[in-house]
Amino acid sequence: MRTFVSLMCLVVLAVSARSQTPAPAAPARVLHPWQAPMPAGTAEAYFTNLKSGDRIETPFLLKFGLSGGWGLAPIAKPLGGKSGHHHLLVNRDLPLDFKAALPFNEQYIHFGKGQMEAVLTLAPGTYTLRMLLADDKHLPHFVYSKPLKVTVTKKNATDPKALVTQGIAIQVSGAEVKTPFRVQFHASGLNVAHAVQQEKDTGHFKLTVVSKAGAVAEMDFVEGQTEAWLAPPVGDYTLKLEFLDNLNPKQVLASAAPTAVRVQP
């Protein structure tokens, strides 16, 4: 009996020790040598073509981005990790309860397909706008933009659909940069998703960096990322951005015009 009790104690101790063993950490993303790690504290959703104090006419094509290694993921196929979809808050503060789903109304505009833009059709007036990322259940992440105030001076008769032309674009701070520098991607009329979701009518970005000497670096952003930080050696480079179909990665859905960059010491 004493032996049986001793054995049971050993089993309990072993199970207890096993339960206290921390779960293995997720493998870190493998970066290309020409990529730089995301700067700390940069996880945010942001506007790329609008700033506080701007005066605009509507319809207006509003564009937004996502930083900190987060990626877009349509809600049709739930996905955890650093993924989510954009929401535009109109005249609304951040929610007080981040454990409650965001409502669906004109002040909380959802982009659950993986969109990176929206056509504003606001009437003349002053508005406060803010971006907020949330998961497939519309529960907010702590990934959001600062609020900005804009004034709509006029609403035109332009057809909102006429402002959207399917394609992609690449944005760098200038033709001459120092490392690390940010490269932003934008998709218009196209939906961004994690490749693993295998969602129809979605794609992901692929960036090819070519040095003047002929060296080539290919970076496939299969986790729905919409920007990258680069740190290649000093020299001249050409950046080529493509948008690949998530069901058939060999199919290029869109390409951006090549961008020349000179990396300075």
Please give a structural write-up.
This protein is mainly beta and 265 residues long. The protein has two domains: 45-162, Immunoglobulins (Immunoglobulin-like, Sandwich); 167-263, Immunoglobulins (Immunoglobulin-like), CATH 2.60.40. It is built from one helix and 19 strands. The strands form four sheets. Strands 2, 4, 5, 6, 8, 9 and 10 form a seven-stranded mixed sheet that branches. A hairpin with a 4-residue loop joins strand 14 (203-211) and strand 15. The radius of gyration is 23 Å and the shape is globular. Residues 1-27 have low confidence and may be disordered.
Q: Number of folding domains?
A: 2
Total count of helical runs of at least 4 residues: 1
Shape: globular
Spans where pLDDT lies below 50 across 5 or more residues: 1-27
Q: Give the ordered list of helices and strands.
A: HEEEEEEEEEEEEEEEEEEE
User: In the CATH classification, which architecture of the largest domain applies?
Assistant: Sandwich
Short description:
With 265 residues, the protein is mainly beta.
List keywords for this structure.
265 residues; mainly beta; Immunoglobulin-like; 2 domains; 7-stranded mixed beta sheet; 6-stranded mixed beta sheet; 1 helix; 19 strands; 42% strand; globular; disordered N terminus
Question: Secondary-structure map with pairings?
Answer:
Elements: H1 2-20, E1 45-47, E2 55-58, E3 60-66, E4 71-72, E5 83-90, E6 108-111, E7 117-120, E8 125-134, E9 140-144, E10 148-155, E11 167-172, E12 176-177, E13 181-188, E14 203-211, E15 216-221, E16 227-230, E17 235-245, E18 252-255, E19 259-263
Parallel strand pairs: 2-10, 4-5, 12-19
Antiparallel strand pairs: 1-3, 3-7, 5-6, 5-8, 8-9, 8-10, 11-13, 13-16, 14-15, 14-17, 17-18, 17-19
